[in-house]
């Protein structure tokens, strides 16, 4: 049983790392700021989510697991807010003559 | 080489990098940034020494770590004061040069404080 | 495996520090510095200083980063003039030589540190039972070196007064910062309504649990100050005028209670800030409760800056 849990942890965390790599590559290679924002949100949502889901079998109490999920939720909230604000500022800057 | 020595050497390098930035960058905000880098290097050095004092079931000597918490908070307050000084200088003269032949006021009598 | 992680961390940190020194634009340098502060948190975890890691993440990464970004955006027009003043190549080489010499001297000191290392951990472990506090760092901060914590609170207050004193005469007594306006249906206002309850609970929890586990009042107060700043940035609340009595009373309440308890110690236990037998934990709690609002207000107000609007007539 613990072998299956460890296997799940390795696969999920590795998957999360892949999404982080994809997000960073997008940040470095995409041509403009809006597309880079799009790449970063993939790292935030999917990458961190997979890492958290992978770590969940390894925690030793329910409250620690809930705290991990809370952390993911808070990062989603702040990431979404920051992306919206940056995108709106970019649109406003490009709309000015 | 254990973690404490590695981070102690890293801290020495950080202090050197920060010192170079402090001397070379002419913009005062970059100097404040370099000063913060020096400060965090000093803190890391202290932390490496605290880690070497691990004993009695604790992971690190608690006295230097408590002093570090105090140090980080006081360093932030010093940075806040420095930034406030810089912004006031900018409001008064319109530029942030530290050269000694810069004009003192944008318009005389605009606000005497 | 752990060694590879440490070497990778050290390399990243040195690279980010170098970047924040030589980046061309100040905004890029500040962004690099914020990332550097967050990586420093991981270094603290590796050095087994969890309380210091919390403080570094909150104050070093979060508050200092916010302060510097605000300053960078206001000073954008001065960067071109500053770039014209850069020193020539001989001065740079001399500076590089001096910095390398200082770094080499410090590295030498690190390599010849005495082995076994002198440490105060056994002394703390012997006496910590008297303070009835489980976290050795809280015991050091509030009982063994309480004088340092008192002086730190007073220094923070002086720094705030210093920041306020940089206001022009006509603004003295007014509100710090400019009035912020955000779209009341927009996402910033939404987040500023959703996040502060969670943040305040987390801050109080970190403050309370600091007695026995990593945490403490500095980290908790920083979280609550950050939530207050978020509410102010979204325009949902305005900064209080600095002449308000309640503000000034709350600011001095922390250090005054601390000093009063210290004087009580002179009377009952023969030394300033000595705690009488048996009531060490309640006294520590009283000091921390008094210091929490003080620290929250000071940290928040230092970020907002000097008054920029005149007092109402």
How would you describe this protein?
The complex is a heterotrimer of chains A (97), B (113) and C (313). Chain A has helices at residues 2-29, 33-55, 62-95. Chain A is mainly alpha-helical and 97 residues long. Chain A is elongated. The N and C termini of chain A lie far apart (63 Å). Chain B is elongated, with a radius of gyration of 19 Å. Chain B contains three helices and no strands. The longest helix of chain B has 32 residues, at 62-93. With 113 residues, chain B is an all-alpha fold. Chain B has one domain (3-93): Helix Hairpins. Chain C has 313 residues and is an all-alpha fold. Chain C folds into three domains: 1-75; 86-118; 120-313, no CATH class. In chain C, 72% of the residues lie in helices and 0% in strands. The longest helix of chain C is centred in the first third of the chain and has 25 residues, at 50-74. Chain C is globular, with a radius of gyration of 23 Å. Chains B and C meet through helix 1, helix 2 and helix 3 of B and helix 1, helix 2, helix 3, helix 4 and helix 5 of C.
Proportion in β-strands of chain B? under 5%
Distance between the termini of chain C: 66 Å
Number of domains of chain C: 3
Low-confidence stretches of chain C: none
Task: State the separation between the terminal residues of chain B, measured CA to CA.
Answer: 56 Å
State Rg of chain C.
23 Å
- Indicate the proportion of strand residues of chain C: under 5%
Task: Write the CATH fold name of chain B.
Answer: Helix Hairpins
Find the structural class of chain C using helix and strand composition. mainly alpha
Task: Name the largest protein-protein interface in this structure.
Answer: B-C, 82 and 100 residues
SSE arrangement of chain C, N to C = HHHHHHHHHHHH
Rounded to an integer in angstroms, the radius of gyration calculated over CA atoms of chain B is: 19 Å
Mean pLDDT of chain C: 90
């Amino acid at each position: 049983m613990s072998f299956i849990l460890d296997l799940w942890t390795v696969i999920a965390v590795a998957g999360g790392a892949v999404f982080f790599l994809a997000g960073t590559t997008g940040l470095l290679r995409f041509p403009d700021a809006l597309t880079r924002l799009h790449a970063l949100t993939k790292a935030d949502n999917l990458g961190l989510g997979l890492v958290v889901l992978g770590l969940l079998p390894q925690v030793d109490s329910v409250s620690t697991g809930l705290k991990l999920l809370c952390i993911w939720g808070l990062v989603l909230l702040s990431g979404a807010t920051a992306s919206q604000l940056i995108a709106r500022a970019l649109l406003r800057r490009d709309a000015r003559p | 080489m254990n973690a404490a020595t590695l981070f102690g050497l890293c801290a020495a390098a950080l202090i050197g990098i920060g010192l170079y930035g402090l001397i070379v960058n002419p913009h005062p905000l970059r100097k404040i940034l370099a000063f913060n880098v020096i400060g965090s290097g000093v803190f890391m050095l202290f932390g490496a020494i605290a880690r070497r004092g691990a004993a009695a079931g604790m992971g690190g000597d608690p006295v230097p770590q408590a002093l570090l918490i105090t140090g980080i908070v006081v360093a932030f307050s010093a940075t806040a004061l420095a930034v406030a000084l810089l912004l006031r200088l900018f409001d008064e003269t319109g530029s942030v040069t530290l050269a000694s032949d810069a004009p003192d006021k944008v318009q005389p009598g605009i606000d005497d404080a | 495996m752990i060694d590879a992680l440490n070497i990778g961390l050290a390399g990243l940190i040195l690279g980010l520090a170098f970047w924040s020194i030589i980046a061309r634009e100040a905004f890029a340098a500040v962004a690099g510095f914020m990332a550097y502060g967050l990586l420093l948190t991981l270094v603290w975890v590796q050095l087994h200083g969890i309380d210091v890691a919390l403080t570094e993440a909150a104050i070093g990464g979060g508050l200092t980063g916010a302060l510097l970004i605000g300053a960078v955006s206001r000073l954008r027009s001065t960067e071109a003039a500053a770039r014209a003043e850069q020193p020539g190549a001989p001065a740079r080489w001399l500076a590089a030589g001096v910095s390398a010499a200082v770094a080499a001297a410090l590295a030498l000191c690190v390599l010849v540190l005495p082995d076994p290392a002198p440490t105060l951990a056994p002394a703390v472990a012997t006496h910590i039972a008297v303070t009835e506090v489980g976290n050795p760092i809280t015991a050091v901060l509030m009982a063994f070196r309480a004088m340092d914590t008192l002086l730190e609170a007073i220094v923070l207050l002086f720094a705030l007064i210093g920041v306020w004193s940089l206001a022009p005469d006509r603004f003295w007594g007014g509100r710090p910062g400019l009035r912020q306006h955000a779209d009341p249906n927009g996402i910033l206002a939404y987040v500023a309504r959703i996040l502060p309850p969670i943040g305040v609970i987390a801050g109080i929890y970190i403050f309370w649990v600091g007695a026995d586990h990593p945490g403490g009042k500095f980290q908790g107060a920083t979280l609550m100050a950050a939530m207050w700043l978020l509410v102010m940035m979204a325009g949902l609340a305005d900064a209080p005028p600095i002449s308000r009595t309640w503000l000034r009373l709350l600011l001095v309440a922390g250090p005054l209670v601390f000093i009063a308890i210290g004087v009580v110690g002179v009377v009952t236990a023969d030394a300033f800030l000595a705690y009488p037998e048996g009531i060490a934990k309640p006294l520590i709690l009283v000091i921390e409760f008094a210091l929490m609002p003080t620290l929250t207000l000071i940290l928040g107000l230092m970020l907002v800056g000097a008054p920029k609007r005149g007092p109402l007539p």
